[in-house]
Amino acid sequence: MKPSFAVLNGPNLDRLGKREPGVYGSATLADLQAALCKTATSLNVELSFFQSNHEGALLDKIGELADGGCAGAVINPGAWTHTSVALRDAIAGSGMPFVEVHISNVHKREPFRHHSYTAGVCEGVICGLGQQGYHFALEYLVKKIS
Ligand code: DQA
Fold it and tell me: Fewer CB within 10 A of the terminal residue: the chain, N end or C end?
């Protein structure tokens, strides 16, 4: 059986392509998912996707993935990066490796985006490389378990 990984997106990332395209680009979440499916095929792994604008739904999903044997996850927590101790605890408690991704370079932006509650419980953080960052993160996770 192929190992399975997940790509998780937090609030407002369903609006990629429409939302501040100067910051986040013109590619949509569907474009991102289609491109990641190709990467997953080339890496010979299963990939599932989840996006929510509801924090509890994302917390529930992380628990489900952990209990379901998911091998690791790429997460863009969106604004919850900068606010959510609960999300940090869910990641820490999952026992799964996570890589945090941000499309924009949060360090070039407003000071409130410079702190991440979640980064300290992830394997690493990729930011500012656009949607490409998700692919790098997935490649890292697949290499890590093989
Ligand atoms: C983001 C950066 C966050 O600060 C912001 O709240 C987002 C998107 C990014 O991908 O660059 O929603 O995570």
Answer: N
